[in-house]
Amino acid sequence: MSLIVTAVTCMAFSHLTAQSKSLKDSTPEQRAKMQTEWMKTKLALNSTQIKQVYDLNLEYARKNDPVFKSNDSKLAKFKKLKALQKEKSSFLNKVLNEEQYKKYQEIKDQLIQNFKNKRK
């Protein structure tokens, strides 16, 4: 379950739809683009932020990719993904303004809570 929660956290900003490839089958570039588009809409990013957020999303999508594809245990994957997500959030905090970052955190927390409720 822990791996799933982390995957939801990572996917939360991917806004994957039924027509999109699954997280596992998508490329880091596809995930970064989807995340950036979603964040652009939900957080009202300006043009400078869009570029910075895309670059950050791409960097972390590339870092997450080997973790998703590894044969590590679910717990090991969870720990790695959680650490990467925490690292990425600290960089996002520098790119987004206070209001945008607060909204980002609220949406992420709500998506995780919704997922946990569905798992019960």
Overview of the molecule:
This is LTXXQ motif family protein. With 120 residues, the chain is mainly α. It has one domain. The chain is 78% helix and 0% strand. It has five helices and no strands. The N terminus is likely disordered.
User: How many separate domains?
Assistant: 1
Quickly give the structural class.
Answer: mainly alpha
Molecular shape: globular
Q: What's the main sheet like?
A: none
- On the 0-100 scale, what is the average pLDDT? 83
The topology string of helices and strands comes to: HHHHH
Please give a quick description of this structure.
With 120 residues, the protein is an all-alpha fold.
Write the layout of secondary structure elements.
Layout: H1 2-11, H2 28-43, H3 47-69, H4 74-95, H5 98-119
Protein name: LTXXQ motif family protein
Notable traits:
mainly alpha; globular; single chain; 120 residues; disordered N terminus; 5 helices
